């Protein structure tokens, strides 16, 4: 047997006749070409920028910006570097995107399910919601929300006052900010413990259900854990938390936490606009599940609510997730409209103000595009991973 | 919006990549002559400086300095096409060659002049940054603005001066920075900000767009120097000279008493003073030096007017005092080098 195989193997051909090796050589040559072209392009750009007296290079990232930014998640002032401003913008972009994706998903699912409701009014309302919002350009909606939020609100001096701790005015919604003092580390620890507990619980509950068919109220237990454990820790450590309550001083409120009109309008507009697309995706997903599935579930004696949750939605998810991913990507990219309403996102601060102050369009746009590419790839791979975990497993 | 920025940035990149070696000197002027008009970058609507009416006719001081250049090159001040630009877009538009010159209340600063590949051709308006507030706030000085919210435009010197001024005086503020002026005005009008800050000329112009212009006052403090003027891209010194001298002749004409109604007569006058003869091109080689017709300055003054006329037509209706922008001989600092 072995002898036979050996004898039937032809003599090794010269490498240019071996398709595998040839391919390798071609690929190597191609790669070399790409590198050479890229190198020439970059070199040429640098030379020409220099010839035209436009500064180039990334040295500017270390110089101080000289401008102020209203909303920052990390410490920043006008003496901070352009790189810090870049991070500030990046974090602000991530902040609106994450919150926007979260709200858009919830709203979209509600609207998508509502559109299939047997209740005529609910179904019609949802249809109107979807068709109107999908067809009005996002920028218009953004301005609408911004000025709709802004106009009716009063000056800080006449702010709407809720229990002397929350204030609503045309400067935003100010509320108390928790300040964690010594010993509050335990609370964070309790929170982490609760999250780990929930994950373990879910795995255990799933195993149990597969083995015994009994269901465990995972949702309510999780809710209890995530609220209860930190609360226990809070009581156990004797409330090492104090509140920084906003106070009207001069023109504005100082202290506390603020949700600015810019941030709110951007989140509103992005999540409502995107939710109208998600609603259609959800509807399509649900309708793609064969009617026989519902009938089978009913004949097994499942309640309608369980049928939706346990039979229909999991199967619909497989159809929903891929287009949902592209809606998440859209939302993230659309957040770059922020500059129109003064929300300091990456495009506004970095590709806007910083670009204009330094004039280094090539470097700054390069970095900005790289960030969006990175964010998009991250969202895609997270969703792909989630999709894979939901995909049909043939047993 | 982002698409536009990306596009012009890309074109800067592409232009810089593909233009092997340097463009030959005179590229801008050649392309202008070939097209038959100047592509001039202006603002998106600032009454008195660059503003389009319903028919799309542009007027204003900044617009007039696009027109002086066209009159000098083509003998036709109307040979201009306008590109409205936000403050943020303007420099990339100039660097990428989308526009031939930028005449958009742009402050001449050292870093813009040296690191962006552009040259400022002169100062057409000496300005400074000011603050506007609602009268009913009861504020009378910028030093009372600690903690206020300030609305302004993105990508301007205003953003930088504000930060300087407030930190220098140990005050804090909340910047609310929009890309477009219309939103700045709308947000300030809606009460989002206590203060609207920009160049004093801009304040006077934008004030006309507010719901109740009389309900606002401009504070006395001027916190910066804002010499505004046209800019051109590096690489065409001849065009740079033409833009520069098309500004100077308007100042010189005012000083010499030449204006749009008497310039033709002066040009025909055989016994005019030697300086006038040089100005109108009857003697000397001022036009030839710039590569223009001998009567280029006559075209500029007869079609656009001298600096005083440009001021009266555009800026005076905003009730701004002439101040620094008066001739040097009348207490201002407008001064043209000798035409000889
Ligand atoms: N001179 C300043 C500010 C120029 C600026 O953009 N001003 C605004 C406010 S007056 C403006 O021109 N807006 C009119 C527009 O955007 O159309 C600079 O060069 O940075």
UniProtKB/TrEMBL annotation, chain A:
PANTHER family: AMINO-ACID ABC TRANSPORTER PERMEASE PROTEIN YHDX-RELATED, MEMBRANE COMPONENT OF AMINO ACID ABC TRANSPORTER. SUPFAM superfamilies: MetI-like (SSF161098). Pfam families: BPD_transp_1. It comes from Reinekea marinisedimentorum. This is General L-amino acid transport system permease protein. Residues 90-383 form the ABC transmembrane type-1 domain. One of its GO terms (cellular component) is ATP-binding cassette (ABC) transporter complex. It is a multi-pass membrane protein.
TrEMBL record, chain B:
Belongs to the bacterial solute-binding protein 3 family. Coiled coil: none annotated. The keyword Signal applies. GO terms for biological process: amino acid transport. Keywords: Signal, Transport. It comes from the Bacteria. Residues 1-25 form the signal peptide. It comes from Reinekea marinisedimentorum. Residues 37-266 form the Solute-binding protein family 3/N-terminal domain. This is General L-amino acid transport system substrate-binding protein.
């Amino acid at each position: 047997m072995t002898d036979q195989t050996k004898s039937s193997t032809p003599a090794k051909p010269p490498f240019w006749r071996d398709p595998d090796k040839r391919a390798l050589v071609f690929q190597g040559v191609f790669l070399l070409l790409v590198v050479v072209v890229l190198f020439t392009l970059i070199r040429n750009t640098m030379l020409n920028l220099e010839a035209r007296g436009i500064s180039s290079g990334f040295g500017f990232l270390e110089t101080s910006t000289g401008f102020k930014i209203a909303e920052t998640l990390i410490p920043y002032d006008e003496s901070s570097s352009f790189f810090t401003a870049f991070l500030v913008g990046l974090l602000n972009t991530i902040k609106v995107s994450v919150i926007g994706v979260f709200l858009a998903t919830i709203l979209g699912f509600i609207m998508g399910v509502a559109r299939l409701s047997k209740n005529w009014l609910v179904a019609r309302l949802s249809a109107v919601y979807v068709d109107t919002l999908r067809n009005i350009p996002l920028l218009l909606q953004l301005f609408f929300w911004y000025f709709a939020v802004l106009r009716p609100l009063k000056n800080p001096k006449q702010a709407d006052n809720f229990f002397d701790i929350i204030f609503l005015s045309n400067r935003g919604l100010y509320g108390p900010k928790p300040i964690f003092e010594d010993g509050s580390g335990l609370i964070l620890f309790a929170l982490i413990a609760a999250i780990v507990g929930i994950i373990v619980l879910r795995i255990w509950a799933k195993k149990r259900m597969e083995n015994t068919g009994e269901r465990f109220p995972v949702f309510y237990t999780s809710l209890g854990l995530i609220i209860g454990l930190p609360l226990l820790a809070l009581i156990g450590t004797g409330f090492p938390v104090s509140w920084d309550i906003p106070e009207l001083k001069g023109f504005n409120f100082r202290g506390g936490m603020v949700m600015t009109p810019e941030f709110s309008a951007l989140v509103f507009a992005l999540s409502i606009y995107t939710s109208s697309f998600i609603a259609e995706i959800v509807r399509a997903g649900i309708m793609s599940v064969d009617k026989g599935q519902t009938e089978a579930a009913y004949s097994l004696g499942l309640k309608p609510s369980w049928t939706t949750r346990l039979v229909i939605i999991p199967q619909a998810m497989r159809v929903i997730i891929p287009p949902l991913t592209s809606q998440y990507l859209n939302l993230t990219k659309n957040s770059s409209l922020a500059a129109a309403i003064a929300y300091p996102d990456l495009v506004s601060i970095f590709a806007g103000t910083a670009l204009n102050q330094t004039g280094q369009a090539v470097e700054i746009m390069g970095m900005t595009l790289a960030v969006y590419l990175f964010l998009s790839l991250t969202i895609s791979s997270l969703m792909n991973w989630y999709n894979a975990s939901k995909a049909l497993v043939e047993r | 919006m982002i698409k536009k920025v990306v596009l012009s940035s890309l074109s800067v990149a592409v232009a810089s990549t593909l233009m092997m070696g340097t463009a030959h000197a005179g590229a801008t002027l050649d392309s202008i002559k070939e097209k038959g008009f100047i592509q001039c970058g202006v603002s998106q609507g600032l009454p008195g400086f660059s503003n389009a009416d319903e028919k799309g006719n542009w007027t204003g001081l900044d617009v007039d300095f696009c027109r002086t250049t066209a009159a000098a090159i083509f003998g036709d001040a109307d040979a201009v096409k306008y590109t409205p630009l936000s403050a943020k877009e303007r420099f990339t538009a100039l660097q990428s060659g989308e526009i031939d010159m930028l005449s958009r209340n742009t402050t001449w600063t050292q870093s813009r002049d040296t690191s962006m590949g552009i040259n400022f051709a002169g100062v057409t308006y000496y300005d400074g940054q000011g603050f506007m507030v609602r009268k009913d706030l009861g504020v009378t000085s910028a030093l009372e603005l600690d903690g206020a919210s300030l609305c302004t435009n993105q990508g301007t010197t205003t953003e930088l001066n504000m930060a300087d001024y407030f930190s220098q005086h140990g005050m804090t503020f909340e910047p609310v920075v929009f890309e477009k002026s219309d939103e700045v005005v709308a947000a300030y009008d809606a009460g989002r900000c206590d203060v609207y800050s920009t160049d004093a000329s801009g304040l006077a112009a934008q004030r006309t767009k507010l719901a109740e212009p009389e309900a606002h006052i401009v504070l006395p403090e001027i916190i910066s120097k804002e010499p505004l003027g046209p800019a051109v891209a590096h690489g065409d010194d001849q065009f740079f000279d033409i833009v520069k001298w098309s500004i100077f002749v308007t100042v010189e004409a005012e000083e010499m008493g030449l204006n749009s109604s008497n310039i033709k007569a002066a040009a025909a006058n055989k016994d005019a003073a030697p300086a006038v003869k040089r100005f109108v091109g009857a003697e000397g080689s001022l036009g030839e030096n710039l590569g223009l017709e001998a009567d280029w300055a006559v075209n500029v003054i007869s079609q656009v007017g001298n600096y005083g006329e440009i001021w009266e037509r555009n800026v005076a209706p905003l009730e701004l005092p002439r101040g620094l922008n008066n001739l040097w001989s009348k207490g201002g600092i407008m001064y043209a080098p000798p035409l000889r």
